[in-house]
Amino acid sequence: MADVLWLTVKLAGVTTVVLLVLATPLAWWLARSHAWWKEIIGAVVALPIVLPPTVLGFYLLLALGPNSPLMIPFQAVGVRTLAFTFEGLVIGSVIYSLPFAVQPIRNAFQAIGARPFEVAATLRASPLDAFFSVAVPLARPGFLVAAILTFAHTIGEFGVVLMLGGGIPGETEVLSIEIYKLVEALEWDKAHQLAGLLLAFAFAVMLSLMLIERRTGRLRP
Amino acid sequence: MSARRSVLAALFAGLAMVTSAASAIAAETRVAVAANFTEPAKEIAARFEAKTGHKATLSFGSSGQFFAQIANGAPFEVFLSADTERPQKAETDGLAMPGTRFTYATGRLVLWSKTPGLVDGRGAVLTKGAFQKIAIADPKAAPYGLAAVETMGKLGVYDRLSPKLVTGASITQTYQFIDTGAAELGFVALSQVVNHKEGSRWMVPASNHTPIEQQAVLLKTGADNAAAKAFLAFMKGPEAKAIIRRYGYEVR
Amino acid sequence: MSEKSGVIEATFKGRLGDFVLDVAIRTPAAGVTVLFGPSGCGKTTVLRCLAGLERLSGRLLVAGDVWQDAERFLPAHRRPVGYVFQEASLLAHLSVSRNLFFGFRRVQGARPVDLDQVVALLGLEPLLERGVSRLSGGERQRVAIGRALLSQPRLLLMDEPLASLDGERKAEVLPYLDRLHSELAIPIIYVTHDPVEAARLGDRMIRLIDGRAGDAFDLRQGATDSHLAARFGEIGPDAMLSELRGAGIPDELARLTISALETGLPPWPRVERSPRN
């Protein structure tokens, strides 16, 4: 049970970090670009919200399976498939939670407006410099929301893991799957316990994140 | 005046007869069907409707899920499980009508691969181990999974193969893993691959595992439903049995 | 004194939305040049083009350096320009001193304008330890000016810096602007629609109407005429106006003179001017 919990937390943590890194430039582009096809990309990014997770998981199974063209570079180094691996789950989780990370960060960037960047430019900051010294600090609340949502969303993730996981202990056997299996096996008491543990843990994490934000927010000048 | 009245009366009587006859003829019943029995169940339901006029509405899923739903008031009237455990529990928990439980099919386990030539006719591929992933259904949830584990144990290959095991939450999922190639081979129900021409397979001799007896039961919700009772009776009849056998199950 | 001051030559031509700009400006790179005109005439646009915040086709030459021409466009962050916006626009996530140093830290090479000088010039001492959100409008604007100065600009652009302040705050900041102009050798281009500010702070004025610029008027023309105040007291504004017009003084210059006289501000020169210009 402890392994399962640790794996679940690990998956949520790794996914959150990876997604924050990936979502930020995407959110930045969506916030600032004037390309006419910008909203098409925006809609594609939002797709995982409407796709049933099992459907998403199924397509991921195909995409990460041994017959997929995407796997060719991996096969060159001896990796047959990313299905049933922790790394495969991370990829699945990143896609599953993509809109939950991109949207808050994009909104935060948009809320900054143009003026602070003009100020930074007249104060000798190059666009890259301004991104790190102005955009990122001012968008902090967006990053925090993105992190919280991604983490929570991944902890509760089921459909994608179901399709892609294979229930391998230590690699893909996460809490949500374990609870499902216990219900299947008619071990309802254990299922209740595990579900309670999951809820309590997720609640504790989110509460601490919100408290941290309150405290550090107040320390700002 | 009275002539018209008698015509009206006749009309109403006729209408009443027709509707009551119709309700006697066109009753409906809801059946929960274990996923591995999907294809045969569809055929049986079609023949059932053609023969009796009753309609059987089928839902497919895992037996564990169905049990949980039934225990919480789901409106299923007939339960076709993949095992014996859940129908037994339904009876002891008072969810099913006593005396209605019976084995409707005995499943056959198959070691199957989409790759032709991978699985030989005697299952030696298991000892050779020339593959990275082998899929089974979750033994705690599906009897086919349990049978797979028993078979591997009997052949003395379980410990060696367990690092390569991939568990599907249901037998359908297990099949998906193999069908997409994510697992090179795996243990599925014969009914899932009985009509497949491609690939390679080993029919696991039934002596290798506990018999996969699939039982059906009439639930309390269907106690007064003529269609429900008729469906179960049809399942025991020769027509249904022929269909069941055609899909690779054994029926007594 | 410094022969190197040179000239600012700017031509910008183009369209922004419904607005069409077509200006040609030539002014010494020294002292205060006022861009004057009603709202919507394009003066902010010109300022933004000078800063590189807006890109219209044209040419910009600043004291011998080409900042823009047909082949080149120096981006805003590479121009040694200071910009004071109408609303102070301090960076909310930074303290007052971090705001002040934002540009300073990024300047390579010599940094002759230093913190002490700027603090003294703008009276920023009591503000240094305060949080940005605790400043009044006038204080914010002074910090913004200080911040722009500390970025070692060779040209200071000010876009109606007093417009968003009420009367009291305006009066608070004006003396600092006076000093700016007298104590620093940095040329300033100052946008305003207020004739009083123009009269008080400017050395010369360029009038903008509907995206086109007129010639530069030397605002100190009337400086040599010491009879002005006395005469004004005698005959009053209307008669004064027709007299000035009759003397061949351009219309808006005449009006500016009258406003300055009306508000009781001393006619130019207002502050002791060092012969830097």
Task: Describe the structure in your own words.
The complex is a heterotrimer of chains A (221), B (252) and C (277). Chain A is mainly alpha-helical and 221 residues long. Chain A is 77% helix and 0% strand. Chain A has one domain: Orthogonal Bundle (MetI-like fold). Chain A contains 11 helices and no strands. Chain A is globular, with a radius of gyration of 20 Å. Chain A starts with a helix and ends with a helix. The termini of chain B are far apart. The mean pLDDT of chain B is 88. With 277 residues, chain C is of the alpha/beta class. Chain C has a single domain (3-223), classed as P-loop containing nucleotide triphosphate hydrolases (Rossmann fold). Chain C has a 6-stranded mixed β-sheet, sandwiched between helices. Chain C has a 4-stranded antiparallel β-sheet with strand order 2-1-4-5, covered by helices on one side. In chain C, helix 4 runs parallel beside helix 5. Chains in contact: A-B, A-C. Chain A binds chain B through residues 58, 61-62, 64-67, 80-81, 83-84, 162-163, 166-168, 177, 180-181, 183-188, and chain B through 62, 64-65, 67-68, 85-86, 89, 132-133, 135, 138, 140-141, 165-169, 173, 176-177, 180-183.
SSE blueprint:
The complex is a heterotrimer of chains A (221), B (252) and C (277).
Chain A: H1 2-32, H2 38-50, H3 53-63, H4 72-76, H5 86-112, H6 115-122, H7 127-138, H8 140-155, H9 159-165, H10 175-184, H11 188-218
Chain B: H1 2-25, E1 28-34, H2 38-52, E2 55-61, H3 63-71, E3 78-80, H4 85-92, E4 102-107, E5 109-113, H5 125-128, E6 134-137, H6 143-154, H7 158-161, E7 165-168, H8 171-179, E8 185-189, H9 190-193, E9 200-203, E10 212-218, H10 226-236, H11 238-246
Parallel strand pairs in B: 1-2, 1-3, 6-7, 6-8
Antiparallel strand pairs in B: 3-10, 4-10, 5-8, 5-9
Helix pairs in contact in B: 2-10, 2-11
Chain C: E1 7-16, E2 19-28, E3 32-36, H1 43-51, E4 57-62, E5 65-68, E6 81-84, H2 96-104, H3 115-122, H4 137-150, E7 155-159, H5 167-183, E8 188-192, H6 195-201, E9 204-209, E10 212-218, H7 228-246, H8 251-262
Parallel strand pairs in C: 3-8, 3-9, 6-7, 7-8
Antiparallel strand pairs in C: 1-2, 1-4, 4-5, 9-10
